[in-house]
Write a structure and sequence with these properties.
The chain is globular, with a radius of gyration of 19 Å. By secondary structure, the protein is α+β, with helices and mostly antiparallel strands. The strands form 3 sheets. A 7-stranded antiparallel beta sheet has the order 1-11-6-13-4-3-2. A 4-stranded antiparallel beta sheet has the order 5-12-7-10, with no helix packed on it. The longest helix is centred in the first third of the chain and has 15 residues. The protein has 8 helices and 13 strands. The N and C termini lie far apart (39 Å).
């Protein structure tokens, strides 16, 4: 029993109640029997037909978006940031940083890294890879620009859920034109360690109010769980998705890491929404609706 408590303190749930709640959420708000099987083998095979499919369905999957070397280099860059060998990028921890005394503690308490574009050339090279930028420009029908960079980390045995949401509901991504996210798997992203889940066609509903519940999220009752499609990815695969697509990731109960890089792009002509416009679209302040 003492051994289990020690592991929980490091990177798992603090109580049985927390773990039971996480498992209930995973089992009721996500499904694992509908898997996305339509995949584009490489960037070179992205066609106008795929562009139409993207805007119709809200997402695409490219299998070999990164080479093995690019995956390995990206992983090294993320770990260098976490262990302070690469400086300048920001890290979001789930525990106070002064309580993290070992590399393992730092890694398993890290939720995400961000702001790496100006500090970490290995990850910037992924975000600005010509194949990626060309694909985004093809989807937008105009030049694409990077508007957000992140490394999203879901550690083993306790990596938390990211509840269902729309990315554009986060103020820094609220533009007057759709943004597009590119979520690159660096580890195998699988059903048991928190791969991405999407609701096809949900972007067509437009902006939906979000609520401060477990996170800034869609109301659980409004999630179309029956339509949930899981998107497992091999390292180097990418999920490209509309900033209005409903998506989320369940907790990681496995013993496996699930590290990824996520970059958001906007069309060059896009401008940020003004605060009142944002509130009207993505909050309940203007509607009075309750979750």
């Amino acid at each position: 029993m003492e051994e289990r408590k020690s592991k929980r303190t490091l990177h798992s749930y603090d109580t049985d109640e927390e773990e039971n709640l996480a498992r209930t959420i995973a089992n009721t708000l996500y499904r694992y029997d509908q898997i996305e099987n339509e995949r584009i083998p490489s960037w070179a095979e992205l066609t106008d037909k795929h562009v139409r499919l993207f805007w119709e369905r809200g997402y695409l999957v490219v299998e070999n978006a990164l080479t093995d070397s690019e995956v390995q280099t990206s992983l090294e860059a993320i770990m260098d940031i976490l262990f302070r060998r690469s400086l300048g990028s920001r890290i979001q921890f789930v525990k106070p940083e002064n309580e993290l005394h070992t590399d393992e503690e730092r890694e398993f308490a890290a939720r995400k890294i961000h702001g790496f574009m100006d500090h970490e050339s290995r990850l910037r090279d992924i975000a600005l890879h010509p194949d990626v930028v060309n694909a985004m420009s093809k989807l937008f029908g105009e030049q694409a620009k990077v508007v957000q960079d992140q490394g999203i980390l879901k550690p083993p045995s306790g990596g938390s859920e990211k509840p269902w949401h729309q990315d554009m509901a986060y103020g820094n991504l609220a533009y007057d034109k759709s943004v597009i996210g590119a979520w690159f798997a660096l580890d195998p992203a699988e059903l048991d360690n928190g791969c991405m889940h999407v609701i096809p066609y949900s972007h067509r509903e437009g902006a939906v109010p979000h609520y401060a519940e477990r996170d800034w999220q869609l109301c659980d009752r409004s999630v179309a769980v029956a339509k949930d499609v899981a998107v497992p990815l091999k390292p180097g695969g990418v999920l490209i998705f509309s900033g209005l697509l409903h998506h989320g990731t369940p907790p990681n109960f496995s013993s496996k890491r699930r590290r990824s890089v996520q970059v958001h792009y906007a069309p060059e002509s896009a401008v940020k929404l003004k605060p009142r416009e944002y509130k009207k679209m993505f909050t309940n302040e203007m509607t009075g609706a309750e979750c």
